[in-house]
Amino acid sequence: MRKTFASGNIAVAEGAITAGLKFYAGYPITPSSEIMEYLAEKLPKLNGIVVQMEDEIASINAAIGASWAGAKSMTATSGPGFSLMAEAIGLAVITETPVVIVDVMRAGPSTGVPTKTSQSDVLQARWLAHGDYIVPCYAPWSVQEAYDLVIKAFNTAELLRTPVIVLSDAVIAHLWEPLTMYDQGEVEIINRKIPKGTGIALPYKPDPDLIPSMPIFGKGFKTIVESLIHDERGYYAPHESAYRALITRLNLKILKKLDYIFDYETYNCTSECDYMLLSYGSTARVTYIAMLELRRRGYNVCMLRLKTLWPIDREKLVNSCRARKIVVVENNIGKIYMDIDRVFKDREVYSAPILSLEPPSLREVLEVISIWL
Amino acid sequence: MAVESINIHPLDKHLRVDRIPTLYCPGCGIGITLGAMLRALDKRINEGLIDPNKIVWVGGIGCSARTVFYVRYDAAHVLHGRAIAFATGVALANPELLVIVVGGDGDIAGIGGNHFIHAARRNIDMIVVMITNFVYAMTGGQVAPTTPRGVKTTTTPMGNPEPPLNAIKLVSALNANYAARASVTTPHYIENFFYKALGIKGFRFIEVISTCPEIYGRHIGLRDPVEMYNELKKRVKYKPKPSIEDADIDWEKGIIIGEFLERNNPSYLELLRGVYGK
């Protein structure tokens, strides 16, 4: 275990290294660039490769190719680059390729404000590509958690043969905090299942957990990475039965591991809460202070912070707290609110959106919450 | 017990024969191209220079790209235009792998143009075979970046107003180690050039001028496969050591085939080893 002082972007890079990153492809974009810069210096010394590609489309596609060549791979970007990666995230889904995509959110749409923060990509992370799928998505609120959740993102990707998204933002990216990093053996590292032997392997034949072993290139498996709807061999199968079977399995394999993927934390939650503040990512930091302040003022209020944005475990959330009124605080027009409102059908759920280019101030957060108290 | 007589083609061992018949139209040049490539590969494998377990075929989207899922090797049939980007990740993450990209002119030089340029500039260790049919065939006959001026396509009904892209000239202006052009009317040159490319490092590019009577032939009045093949054959001329200027494609003046470019520049992996110090 090593203690250091690091920024969120460095923590992302270090988390990836701890998880076993061997290939990074990226394209410079504020506020994510330090991730690539840091890795460019460190990864080659660890027998890894960092390559700055011609654009974000090339970056994600190269990362997917590298994963099939056997390397744990990652790319990082921000909103505009994330938009360009849309199609290839669908490719990673249908080819069941482990790959980690870090989106360091900035204000959009379009070029927006490159240097300033936002949480406006949370639904983009969920529905970026066309088609039916679920991509797990984690949102850290601190430098330490950026490190921890990137490790978890790699583990999730390898365990489930899926792309995984980490949503950081400009605040977390450039925030410096103490960071504890793990050495080998101090943290669980999951590696993909690879078929035994060297004969022909079926790249999409699932085990009972619905997850197929991954016949990576160069081992004699004669694997086919197939972007079309395919059968277990990877052969194009434009039939309804094959389509239904594949799409159902791709979604179910994620949901079956919901217990592993979904994570949250509650603060000051008792069986007697009147109000619950719900937040995530950098905005949760000030929401936490707002919760303490409201308690000081005599409100019976607690807080829940999502670490996993997608997929959401409804049952766990509903049973997390009995508060009658829930206020969702987020730095966008109120996006996660839509799902929270659906999850807590029988409660009063309110949206407290903030559109702030800086970390929202305590005064601002108290203002938007107070409307509903 | 009756003895079954099975005719096995010498190249069958390279193919996923259970996927044949292919989707290619009668008169399509892709089968000729793939056959020539496989004969060259077969030679290299027999020479003991290439381990068949270390070969990866990558294709994007289009008729030509689909060759990759007919061969009995590790393969990836990925996104339209992104074969070279995917292949770059494969080539860099495991330098032991021999990466072969096959695609059409639309896939490689149209939507994939940016990756094509930068892979050639970096001299990435891969072979790119571009099968040029001058049209977007799989989608039904729209104009391609290689379509000659004046040709009527479904999206240029008054005739194509645009000058075409010349991939040999483009690659030559960059840092590729090899650029050659053959034609489906000269399969021995496809075989020779691909055989040669298999023995070189860095970015290797082979353009194969192909016949597409079904789609392109319909546009230029050569709908009959034999007629189109013979018309192309008349126009293709082999030239030893052609200059880059010879690379112009002109249906009236003829199409020069040959080896336009041979260099021994350090490949990307060699350049990386240089700066990484190992």
In short, what is this structure?
The complex is a heterodimer of chains A (373) and B (278). Chain A contains 14 helices and 15 strands.
Question: What are the SSEs and their pairings?
Answer:
The complex is a heterodimer of chains A (373) and B (278).
Chain A: E1 2-7, H1 8-19, E2 21-26, H2 33-42, E3 49-52, H3 56-68, E4 72-77, H4 79-84, H5 86-94, E5 99-105, H6 122-127, E6 137-138, H7 143-160, E7 163-169, H8 170-174, E8 176-181, E9 224-226, H9 240-255, H10 258-261, E10 264-267, E11 275-280, H11 283-296, E12 301-306, E13 308-310, H12 314-318, E14 325-330, H13 336-343, E15 348-353, H14 362-370
Parallel strand pairs in A: 2-3, 2-4, 4-5, 5-7, 6-7, 11-12, 11-14, 14-15
Antiparallel strand pairs in A: 1-8, 6-13, 10-12
Helix pairs in contact in A: 1-2, 1-7, 3-5, 11-14
Chain B: H1 30-46, E1 55-59, E2 74-77, H2 83-93, E3 98-104, H3 105-111, H4 113-122, E4 126-132, E5 135-136, E6 142-143, H5 167-172, E7 178-183, H6 187-197, E8 203-209, H7 213-220, H8 225-235, E9 236-238, E10 249-250, E11 254-262, H9 268-276
Parallel strand pairs in B: 1-2, 1-3, 3-4, 4-8, 7-8, 9-11
Antiparallel strand pairs in B: 5-6, 7-11, 10-11
